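Tutorial, part two.
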Amino acid sequence: MKTNLFLLGLLGASLLAYACNNSNKAHINSAQETVKVESSSSSLMTSHSQPEEKPKVGYEILQILSPWKIIVWLSTDITQKDFDAINLPLGWVKNQPREGLPKKGTFAKSPGATKLGEFRIEKHFGHSWKHVATVIQTGISMDNKGLLSGNRIEKYHEIVLGAGKEFLIIESPQGERYIRMTRDAGRTKEIPTIPDSWTQIDTLLQDDWLIPLPNPTMNIRSDNEDSFQGPLPK
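Running the prediction step on this input gives:
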């Protein structure tokens, strides 16, 4: 059975063994400084599509094994107070607060699972967490001016965009399209700077739109931390 979430917009050897190696410590520190990703569950992500309902909030922590392997753990059973009280060691990061734009989203299974509805659940820091995504590549340059940066994420994820809402789509010079899914809750700039070689498309939906995101998904961040995901199916 799938796990439905009213939220959307990151093991091999143990973390301790990994962190004890000096070179790997440098990799972890570097990743913690640069990684800006979300599975788009997303951490502290609130949907505004149905204001009459109290939105379900999810919290994410990222387990950074290396710059090319970051495990995204999601919990919807803890409170904001619980989340704030968690003190994370080296190699772990709390995901930043996000505002979600889609109506809802569904994770079908954990990365690496063989059956639908199969999720890897582990206990970390006194709470149960579900593995919903794995970041496999970070800091991908999407344009020659450095305005857009990409992260590639393994996940089995589909979203529903609500009818009557307007969504921003950006299209690459190669014709690949990405939908804006989440926004930084603390942003100071409303309009993202999009490269001249890319196209912006404002889309007003007449009906709900179900989008099965590709696996892996490209998660693109703009200069104001808007998150665009895709490529969208043709």
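The chain is about 10% helix and 40% strand. In part three we will examine how such features are distributed along the chain.
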